[in-house]
Design brief:
The protein has 135 residues and is mainly alpha-helical. The protein is built from 4 helices and 2 strands, in the order H-H-E-H-E-H.
């Protein structure tokens, strides 16, 4: 039986907020180290993490054939485990490969994504509040 948060996709939205938050930290670290010699830029692909969190394409055909069987566990995904090194070609003599223009573009995109998911989550809770209050 699905809970109210599952039916309203609030758990999926929470995973999206967590992933966007981790991505923001990765971008901030890249920007902070733009002048650090030898620093290699890191990245995190939002879509990859969310596909894993939502279990797309990796569903096992599980069936409960006995009342003593345990139900399938819900998947929790740690977005920080998806951080990887970008391996950009470095045009600087010090080996640093951070592209500040790319990072600022990623920051703007991620901020828009986070704000959108946050607004949707807020509207879901507003709906729940109105349901529970009977309005």
């Amino acid at each position: 039986m699905l809970g109210v948060f599952d039916k309203m996709k609030i758990n999926s939205l929470a995973a999206g907020l967590d992933t966007a938050s981790v991505k923001n930290g990765v971008i901030a670290k890249n920007i902070a180290n733009v002048d650090t010699p030898g620093f290699k830029a890191m990245d995190l692909k939002f879509n990859t993490v969310m596909k894993e969190a939502l279990g797309e394409g990796k569903k096992l055909p599980l069936a409960i054939t006995n009342e003593k069987h345990l139900p399938p566990a819900t998947r929790t995904v740690d977005p920080s485990s998806f951080i990887y090194q970008q391996n950009n070609p470095s045009v600087r003599n010090d080996g640093n490969d951070v592209n500040i223009d790319y990072e600022m573009t990623q920051m703007a995109e991620n901020t828009i994504r986070y704000n959108m998911i946050s607004d949707i989550t807020g509207s879901k809770f507003t709906k729940l509040k109105s349901i529970f209050s009977g309005r």
